[in-house]
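User: Some background: our group keeps a shared notebook of sequences we're curious about, and every so often someone picks one and asks for a predicted structure to add to the entry. Today it's my turn. The entry only has the sequence so far, pasted here. Could you supply the structure so I can complete it?
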Amino acid sequence: MFAGTLAGARYFGKMIFNLLDSISKIDIKMTDIT
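Assistant: Of course. Here's the predicted structure to add to the notebook entry:
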């Protein structure tokens, strides 16, 4: 149970990190345009 939760938390954290990374890249592109 705990191991499964830990794996799920790591997967969820990685997903959020990737999402934030892509958002920051979009922000950088938008600032380059302006």
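Suggested note for the entry: The chain has one helix and no strands. The longest helix spans residues 2-33.
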